[in-house]
Design a protein that fits this description.
The structure is a homotetramer. The first copy, chain A, is mainly alpha-helical. Chain A is built from ten helices and no strands.
Chain lengths: ~250, ~250, ~250, ~250
Amino acid sequence: MLHLSKMLFNSFTIMRGLSEFSATALFMVISCMGCSVRDQGASGNLISSLNYGLATVVVMHIFGFISGAHANPCVSIACCLLGYIGSNMMFVYIACQLAGAAFGYFMLLQMLSQGLLDACKQGVCMVEPMNSLSSIQILSIEGFLTSVLILAWSALWDVRSGRFLDSVTLRMGCLVTVCNLAGGHLTGASMNPAKILIPTLFKGNPETVLLQLGGQMLASIIIPQLWIFAYTPNYRPLQIETPERHASELYLSP
Amino acid sequence: MLHLSKMLFNSFTIMRGLSEFSATALFMVISCMGCSVRDQGASGNLISSLNYGLATVVVMHIFGFISGAHANPCVSIACCLLGYIGSNMMFVYIACQLAGAAFGYFMLLQMLSQGLLDACKQGVCMVEPMNSLSSIQILSIEGFLTSVLILAWSALWDVRSGRFLDSVTLRMGCLVTVCNLAGGHLTGASMNPAKILIPTLFKGNPETVLLQLGGQMLASIIIPQLWIFAYTPNYRPLQIETPERHASELYLSP
Amino acid sequence: MLHLSKMLFNSFTIMRGLSEFSATALFMVISCMGCSVRDQGASGNLISSLNYGLATVVVMHIFGFISGAHANPCVSIACCLLGYIGSNMMFVYIACQLAGAAFGYFMLLQMLSQGLLDACKQGVCMVEPMNSLSSIQILSIEGFLTSVLILAWSALWDVRSGRFLDSVTLRMGCLVTVCNLAGGHLTGASMNPAKILIPTLFKGNPETVLLQLGGQMLASIIIPQLWIFAYTPNYRPLQIETPERHASELYLSP
Amino acid sequence: MLHLSKMLFNSFTIMRGLSEFSATALFMVISCMGCSVRDQGASGNLISSLNYGLATVVVMHIFGFISGAHANPCVSIACCLLGYIGSNMMFVYIACQLAGAAFGYFMLLQMLSQGLLDACKQGVCMVEPMNSLSSIQILSIEGFLTSVLILAWSALWDVRSGRFLDSVTLRMGCLVTVCNLAGGHLTGASMNPAKILIPTLFKGNPETVLLQLGGQMLASIIIPQLWIFAYTPNYRPLQIETPERHASELYLSP
């Protein structure tokens, strides 16, 4: 408890929490601002996928070396399970991400006129799974897509890819784009609990949200174990209990 | 005064000013040349966003290591406020950028036939904010998008991202593309006073231009302070009063 | 025989085989999941090409430093002919790739509802050559496109490009995208025997599949010889008989 | 004369010439194969621009470290004028490029069925300038776009960008894409004499071809002088008279 309170007032923790807050807020605004002008069909699907992927690039470029630019509670959970951040830090990250997503969503609603907000198909930033999918299919598709995301973060954090971090931001953008191209019309492919939860507080279908959320959570808990078991050779990641490392040592790998 | 005149005739200053002039001219021509063949709607929006983003990549690739390839007065202002260039140099940059934009715009008008010029929706290179947006919304959207751009430049210049500059050109291209995808249909998302001002001298709505310009200026003044306050750890950037550094030391970070 | 069985139980061999299995399965699911919502024509062609190319980026990013992320029997054959992996390892790779493709295809069928599966033009993940092409044209187009892929892998593995591996994942994604843009409507441009064979086991035209497969196989056998003969200067690649190298030495070049 | 004949039989010269031959042939086939399925208008313009840009990435990835992957006589002329290759080598390059383009074009015609060839708007790989443009406008647009390309190659070869070559292939792809997006509907934006000349030998309008060619040639001769005069600080590029450097020293900069 003392340790937690001490950590909370540490200047690097504040900087990293603030960075996660800003990253998630910025991500919400950029990825949802354009929803009102997209037509349905293949072309609209392509544009919203590109928008979502490129927003990831922007967020990782700006905040990557400050806090790792997770901007996604699933990523922070996986990061903790792989031992790169402590569990206290994980809770700080998740709290900042949820607060940032709410702040960003609120700002977005102020920035758009009422006509634009009404033009969004299912509400601003809302994604509805396709009707013809069963519950287990929604859960498994969302879980699969989030698994791909978590696998990519695990690979990014892995010591073996340490020399190849320059273009990793672009690769993650490609990943988010392709996961949206593949599954965007099926379950929305948000792969991000913060992006699912906040708009739902305003208006949403609690049942399908729980399925999407369940798939995302399952992926963020199972994949790190699998990564350690299957793809980590002899060594194990260091259990870093002190997340007060100097920020300049970090690049996308807090 | 003596210092200014001395600097103006320094060969590196001339080379860098000329580079900003060429960069902005080239940027104006490439990003506006294709306006006449685009249809409205989602597909046209995607193409003009890609065009704008990729033009940024081109300009940063060619002129990045000569002058930093700002090609945007907002970026030069932020660069000065963060202490990477002196204020004299900033004024040289901005003057060269405005002159370059005017030259590029003039060249473009010569290169296109009258029929093509007439086919451009709102005049060549002109962007009009959406009617349904209030003044404060135009100001805040343009300000938000320019803030994202200035944050990205701040991150690029930051000493902590010094090892990850290879693909930074592409990342900035992604950023400009996604900001245009998100806000292009709302306020035009030019994020560049030079690109807003020059076509307006020919034909334009002075009121909305002032709002766009105001948002851009606010972002370029506020964001650097915020970056220094929130995301710069212990050290402060060096106050470089002598911008005559050897150009080979610079890469995208004059 | 003893050597083979010994190798099979080596932990690095298992890790690499598992990685190829996962890579191919993941590749099958991501690249085929979206088939049901694409309309025909230019826009659908662009989206499916981007999907295929970006899926390559994802797979190479995640599994690149574990097993090289071939996910393609042709690539493994070329890798063996160029002497980078032994022939035993090649058979392990190919077996894992085919099993992974089958597993991925099976998972995909479970994840999609019947309506979505029926909406796919020619069956999920199936590609049919254009009717107006002769047999020799199908063989040569598929062979040409696979040759480009094998040439690119040969260049990637070449010692001379060893310093330029950071963005190679993105470049391979560009390559797969452009080969699909160019030839996707002609022969399907799968360039991957695993992706051709598995869906054919369910439903397919054996004759055209043989032509596609023939072109791919020819390319994967001829191009490595050509690369060694024409573009390898004085040295020859080392004949690595012991594929038990420490995995951390590998990056996309097993 | 003796020197030339000696050089011609040097194994590295042969390898580099062969590489230019293959690069140009491959470039012709990939960039022209898809012409038959594209509809006109914005979407078709986007796809053909992407196709052209990504084909550049492929060619530079495969042949970049062997011969520099010019695949374009204009680039070889500029390379010679900047002093990176000797004039003998330049003629070898240009001869190989023209032969490669002819070979690639011939192969392409064999690979496509008659119906596909007839479906191409203006003939396979042919580009016609827009009717409403005057001669001087065609010359200046083609000259401007080729200037951008030559400027980008000059920047690539410059010693100051030597540390940032990893993603340069992708940046050149972006450049070719955006130049096509901007000017593809105006003059065709081929920026490549080999790609203009070869299809014209079969069927073409000699007059407009000369204008395009003139613009390209002017750019490739003027821009290198301008680069040396304006953007090269104290040093001058070494006059390399002996192009027999070991190929492993080269990466995209012969």
